[in-house]
Amino acid sequence: MSTPAKFIQIRRDLHQIPEPGFQEFKTQQYLLNYISTLPQERLEVNVWRTGILVKVKGSRPTRTLGFRCDMDALAIAEDTSYPFRSTHPGYMHACGHDVHMTIGLGVLTHFAEHAVDDDLLFIFQPAEEGPGGALPMLASVEFQAWRPDLIFALHIAPEYPVGTIATCPGILFANTSELFIDLVGKGGHAAFPHRTHDMVIAQAHLVTQLQSIISRNIDPLDAGVITIGKIEAGTRQNIIAERARLEGTIRTLSMESMAKIKSRIEAVVKGIEVGFECKAEIDYGANYCQVFNDEALTTDFMNWLQETGTANLVVCREQMTGEDFGYFLAEIPGFMFWLGVDTPYGLHHAKIEPSEDAIGVALNTMTQYLTKLATR
Ligand SMILES: CC(=O)N[C@@H](CCC[C@H](N)C(=O)O)C(=O)O
């Protein structure tokens, strides 16, 4: 199914206004403006911080089906070939949340115009990239008042062709923890290293030693990742750095490995303190629990995809990506799936250009599948 021009325009509009977690003010207003143009007879709208909840009342409801889309963007300077590039310097929708929100609006549009038996809840959730909007939204009075009985979400997948949906029952995304480490030593003149405690050297050793935790302390059959995505140290080429900061993320498939990695990080950091005569502070930032797809619901969805041929199903393996949608799935049965968007650049890349044809595939899939679930 081709993507209606209206939704291509919406995706492009949203792409131009990327905002970080809990600062999605323009995005929220854009979504609210659009929602106000829909037939209002069966809609109820509420806001939670920078997020939005839209209930579509069913004609004879016995349950509520939820569809969640994330709203925030990343601190990346866009480098696409788009004429509709980000108008917010240093921020970009590089993880597809512009596509996710467009799909959410498209499916909502369908159900605002076509009644089904059950209630539907459209959840536009802020701060997925961090610090995590799912957990506080889940606990909010607004969400609990309309709490769904089942919940679904999708995520764009650059590596799959358009028309592909990939998922599996059980674990789909990993447990995550952010990681921030600050080192403070003694700076000084570049010519007198013996009078200083150089935090560039300490930082370099620490980055390397952290990687040995994965290779030496974690069961190779129980995957783990430590990625240091950002390092900062020093002020000038001929000044020995007094401070250094490492920013990264930890990923595991089991909570045992997460605990093990954290305890090993703490031991390695203590060693750096002694070895390089410095003080260190560790902060684990936001932690997300794994995305665990409900076995029966996911199997039903996969069978339905194959029977109807609505999309090409790939039964995929789990990946080390994180998603705070895992918190919804820890409380409410449901599943998440990957949506093929066929682009050579991966998630979180400044050149990622997801195919807009995938929006039509998702609109078709989600409107048909939710109709099946919500109709008796
Ligand atoms: C799908 C995706 O890319 N999600 C993010 C979630 C980030 C979690 C947190 N801020 C962290 O970095 O640990 C991901 O990076 O996987």
UniProtKB/TrEMBL annotation:
GO biological process: diaminopimelate biosynthetic process; lysine biosynthetic process via diaminopimelate
Cofactor(s) recorded in Swiss-Prot or TrEMBL: Mn(2+)
Residue ranges of domain Peptidase M20 dimerisation in the record: 183-270
Cross-referenced InterPro entries: AcetylDAP_deacetylase (IPR023905), Amidohydrolase (IPR017439), Bact_exopeptidase_dim_dom (IPR036264), Peptidase_M20 (IPR002933), Peptidase_M20_dimer (IPR011650)
Known pathway: Amino-acid biosynthesis; L-lysine biosynthesis via DAP pathway; LL-2,6-diaminopimelate from (S)-tetrahydrodipicolinate (acetylase route): step 3/3
Highest taxon listed in the record's lineage: Bacteria
Keyword terms, alphabetized: Amino-acid biosynthesis, Diaminopimelate biosynthesis, Hydrolase, Lysine biosynthesis, Manganese, Metal-binding
Coiled coil stretches, renumbered: none
EC id: 3.5.1.47
SUPFAM superfamilies with a match to the protein in the record: Bacterial exopeptidase dimerisation domain, Zn-dependent exopeptidases
Function recorded in the entry: Catalyzes the conversion of N-acetyl-diaminopimelate to diaminopimelate and acetate.
NCBIfam families, per database record: amidohydrolases
PANTHER family to which the protein is assigned, alphabetical: N-ACETYLDIAMINOPIMELATE DEACETYLASE (PTHR11014:SF98), PEPTIDASE M20 FAMILY MEMBER (PTHR11014)
Family membership: Belongs to the peptidase M20A family. N-acetyldiaminopimelate deacetylase subfamily.
Protein name per UniProt: N-acetyldiaminopimelate deacetylase
